[in-house]
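Entry 12.
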Amino acid sequence: MTSLAAAVGGLLVVAGVLAGWVRRRYLVTTVDGPSMEPTLYSGDRLLVRRTRRVHVGQIVVVRIRPPTLDAPPPDVDRAPADEEPAAPVVREHPDGLLYIKRAIAVAGDPVPVDRVPCLRETRETTVPPGAVVVLGDNAAKSWDSRDYGFVRAEQFVGVAVRRLPAG
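Predicted 3D structure (tokens):
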């Protein structure tokens, strides 16, 4: 019986190591919003390989900390009419959110100032090492590099490997 127990224990260890490796290498995420339509729709699930190597045209997942506004709740008494209202404080979202976009330029490529006007102000003429420029396929409904510029290496999560069946 001890050899059976040892074999089962060994299989459990191997399964645990394999599961840990898969979790470090892959991520499953769900599309939320219209920014990648018509390629991806809200509710589509993607298998994402965690990597920092990306090629132009690939669908990528990035972690962006969008600004949040800290303002008083709407039911709080407003300042008297003769006083200037206090401006809300802009902060970054503490965790960052995952965004699914398409890479349009990678390190070494010319900065696409024609498609991303906010990058006209940058000194770089090529995308810096470790950076990526991303756009949503549905430009009218996408928050992307046109709003926040380069995606830096520490913000990059991975590339989409395939769409998964609904489930």
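Annotation: The radius of gyration is 22 Å. The beta strands are 26-30, 45-50, 59-64, 67-70, 89-92, 97-106, 132-135, 156-164.
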